[in-house]
Amino acid sequence: MASDKFVSQIADIETDFPQWYTDVVVKTKLVDYGPVKGTMVIRPYGYAIWENIQRELDARFKAFGVENAYFPLLIPMSFMTKEAEHVEGFAPEVAVVTHAGGEKLAEPLVVRPTSETIIGHMFGKWVESWRDLPLRQNQWCNVMRWEKTTRPFLRTSEFLWQEGHSVYASGEEAEQETLSMLRLYESFAEKTLCMPVLIGRKTEKEKFAGAVATYGMEAMMHDGKSLQAGTTHYMGQNFAKAFGVQFTDKDGTLKYGYTMSYGVSTRLIGAIIMTHGDQRGLVLPPPVAPIQAVIVPIAMKKEGVLEACFALGKTLEKAGVRVKVDDSDNSPGWKFNEWEMKGVPVRVELGPRDIEANKMLLFRRDTCAKEEADLGDAAAVKTLLASISSELYAKAKARMQSRIVAAKDLDELLGGVNAGNFVRAGWCGERGCEDKVKEFAQATARVLAEDNSEAFCVCCGKPAKHTVFFARAY
Ligand code: ZN
Fold this sequence. Notes:
The protein is an alpha+beta fold and about 475 residues long. The protein has three domains: about 5-275, Bira Bifunctional Protein, Domain 2 (BirA Bifunctional Protein, domain 2, 2-Layer Sandwich); about 295-385, Anticodon-binding domain (Rossmann fold); about 405-470, Translation Initiation Factor IF3 (2-Layer Sandwich), CATH 3.30.110. Helix content is about 35%, strand content about 25%. The chain contains 15 helices and 23 strands. It has a seven-stranded mixed beta sheet, with helices on both faces. A five-stranded mixed beta sheet has the order 16-15-17-18-19, sandwiched between helices. A four-stranded mixed beta sheet has the order 20-21-23-22. It is globular. It starts with a helix and ends with a strand. The model has no long low-confidence stretch (mean pLDDT about 95). The structure holds zinc ion. Zinc ion (ZN) binds near residues 430, 457, 460 and 462.
């Protein structure tokens, strides 16, 4: 039984979603605020989610032929200025080191906001011949972008991410990987995070500073706002020319390579929270949940109960379930609340009567339904975890689909986003119309739809060049 007092510690998810989010991330001990404004401490329960994301994604990259490496945190200031759009895009948010070792530095150093420049520099050294291509490396690291308003996981000055960078001999190949990585992210979001996404190309206004084309995946949060959950970028020869990434081709001529990059960050944790969470707190997708099943002993002091719980824990662990026996000195009711708030997918209740009947009670966090299984039946727990995963995805997908509406003019678009929808609308391709949508409806172009089914621009009424998904965004 969830006591009212306990539930009331979390703000109402429908009427005060921002406070709900803050309450959930802090009370479930995912994060705490760092002493420097805009920084966050990722606590063990939050970091364990990140480790699971990392492990799953890393395996996918490696299966795709990408190698891991590590590049330095500090970048010479002069590197940032080599690609004109890049420096303009990132200048407002870079942190600069001017002093070190008690002296003023001859050249200031930038704390990496992203690593295209330094990796471009190193690739320029390493690439000589067409035989060296493609070169495909990824790093798991932290980056820093000075932010004025911050929220844990969604926007913080320092965050963790992976950034993959590749050089190819041809633009077609580099573009192909830009799309392949977008698909890899989409599949990861769907299968591992149980989170449906919209993928597509970004507009010029929304693209990465220095890219020829940026593609994004967008997820719909509980409040109907969009969260950019990952991006891939095709750079053409922009960075290759700025950093001298050249190779001798088969015909003996010297050519510039074509580069691309891609990244996802600890933002994904925020995406999971805001996609699946409910009034009781977190609802974690089983593939990334640090604890997939928690065993709560009932009448713990009775002879044989704890032993049976630990034996069950061993059985589940052997079957590959991440499991914890909560033998802490709290009441079962307190433990129920705690683990529900922390979003553990399955709770196993085990007391003297269950043991006598050779049964166990399984509670699933997503629907709060209970079912009985034979004591020690690990397959039943695994089946339940799998069905939670597929149902979490199906539920989120149905919600997203039901909340994509079309608009013919700005008033309809405004009404659509006000009601917490993504809005499909035509766009003539002019920056002025995109700006006007932002001004009028506080909505931005998230991605371009693959099909162009709308005839006219939602803003100016001229023929539409693209169909766009507009939304308010985090
Ligand atoms: Zn227009």
